[in-house]
Specification:
Elements (H helix, E strand, L loop, with lengths): L2 H9 L3 E8 L3 E2 L7 E2 L2 E9 L5 E6 L8 E12 L5 E6 L7 H12 L4 E5 L2
Parallel strand pairs: 5-7
Antiparallel strand pairs: 1-4, 1-6, 2-3, 4-5, 6-7, 6-8
């Protein structure tokens, strides 16, 4: 089994708890021109290939939150970067790959990406 299939199997529909360190409607702490129209955070204890905790876009929430529990519905593979981004939504929600890309384009436009849908 290749790593991609293993990753898909282990994250598909997985419920995760996300600590939001970049709430929607805020700017990146270092790149002041990067505005976050969605909540963005990380999962404590899951280390991504960049050595930091796994980053997660939290979608389908229309207000800033400090933390979030929901299901992983997609993985955004950055083909020209060392890390992937996970996409989480409330348990009863779903999105298409196009809808996801529309919401994360503000940051993913700088990378060559593909979206792996997990549902």
């Amino acid at each position: 089994m290749n790593e991609s299939n293993h990753e898909k199997k282990s994250t598909s529909g997985q419920m995760v708890h996300v600590v939001i360190d970049r709430p929607m409607n805020t700017y990146h702490p270092e790149h002041k021109d990067l505005f976050y129209p969605v909540n963005y955070g990380y999962i404590e204890g899951i280390i991504a290939p960049d050595g930091e905790e796994q980053d997660v876009y939290v979608l389908c929430i229309d207000h800033p939150v400090k933390e979030f529990t929901g299901k992983v519905i997609a993985i955004i593979h950055r083909l020209n970067d060392v890390e992937d981004k996970w996409v989480a939504v409330p348990e009863d929600m779903t999105m298409t790959a196009q809808e996801i890309m529309e919401q994360v384009q503000f940051q993913e436009q700088y990378f060559e990406t593909e979206i792996e849908m997990l549902e």
